[in-house]
Design brief:
The protein has about 300 residues and is an alpha+beta fold. Helix content is about 65%, strand content about 5%. The longest helix has about 45 residues.
């Protein structure tokens, strides 16, 4: 009996066998239907569908982290909470202090309409701002050089005791940290999905190889090389993985596209999607699935062909 020619099972040889046509009909060694074919296609489609959402999560959280770290870092708020008879005077004093502080590009007193919009998520629409003891808010935008926040805070305490400078550091950093961790979680989910896909394809390929053990022995008796047998399995299972992942990718992109837009409803989940050139990223999923199928089936073929005698 001919010994398995396992040394010739290198990636280059298998890739040539994968891309070339099969005039001899070697692929018929692998059953075209059955539970292994269905398992491979279904698992590839399901994993590609989940991969689209994991990729969308990673991209969305990356955008959030960047926006929160850049936009909020250049904007601070001055809150004025003083007795009613001193409120106008302290507001004017604070505005004058901000105008004369180096590093501040703009200082704008928020009108009642904008304060009402800020309170609307908690108190509902038509909040009577004028009837509530709501402090006055001044939005401060710094220039590229920035300003000395501690010096400004001390100056405000001396000239307007009711004014408090808030640079959003206390709540901005946890938000940026949470968004960054979610991004890492999304990327880690992609790795888990790839590993699960490889495991499922490996199991399906091993099952197909084991079921065709008698056929493999007969092929060896008539002179078939192990590289020819392995190529048949690699070719079929790689194509199945690619076709299933294409279907899952299309369904995932359709589901992402069907999510409500940011304009229709605010919130984090409404920003979960692809924008502009970002829609091209999911197209890499079928290529990755085909590569995973190629490597997983090759490993299964190498292992099983050693066992089949």
């Amino acid at each position: 009996m001919k010994k398995p020619d396992l040394k010739s099972l290198d990636l280059a040889t298998l890739w040539r066998g994968l891309t070339r046509p099969d005039p001899a009909g070697t692929d018929r060694v692998v059953p075209p239907t059955g539970f292994t074919a269905q398992l491979t296609v279904f698992s590839a489609a399901a994993m590609a569908f989940l991969a689209v959402f994991a990729l969308a999560l990673a991209l969305a959280t990356g955008r959030l982290a960047e926006r929160w770290s850049t936009e909020l870092a250049q904007t601070v708020t001055v809150r004025i909470a003083a007795p009613e008879n001193q409120l106008d005077e302290q507001t004017a004093t604070v505005m004058e202090v901000l105008k004369t502080t180096p590093g501040i590009a703009e200082a704008r007193l928020l009108p009642d309409s904008e304060v009402e919009q800020l309170l609307e998520p908690w108190f509902g629409p038509d909040v009577p701002v004028e009837a509530l003891p709501v402090p006055r808010l001044i939005e401060v935008t710094e220039d590229r050089d920035g300003f000395d926040a501690e010096a400004l805070r001390l100056r405000l305490q001396g000239e307007a005791p009711g004014a408090v400078l808030d640079d959003h550091t206390r709540w901005r950093q946890p938000l940026v940290s949470a968004a960054t961790r979610l991004r890492v979680l999304g990327l880690f989910s992609l790795l888990l999905i790839a590993a699960a896909s490889g495991a499922m394809i490996t199991l399906a390929a091993k099952a197909a190889l084991a079921a065709n053990g008698q056929v493999i022995r007969v092929l060896r008796l008539i002179g078939a090389r192990d590289i020819t047998i392995a190529t048949a399995f690699v070719r079929r299972f790689t194509r199945r993985a690619a076709m299933g992942s294409v279907a899952g990718m299309v369904l995932g992109m359709a589901a992402i596209w069907a999510l409500p837009s940011v304009d229709q409803a605010g919130g984090f989940l409404t920003g979960l999607g692809f924008y502009g050139w970002g829609w091209l990223w999911p197209l890499l999923i079928p290529l990755c699935a085909a590569g995973i199928g190629f490597v997983a089936t090759r490993w299964a073929a190498l292992k099983m062909l050693r066992e089949v005698r």
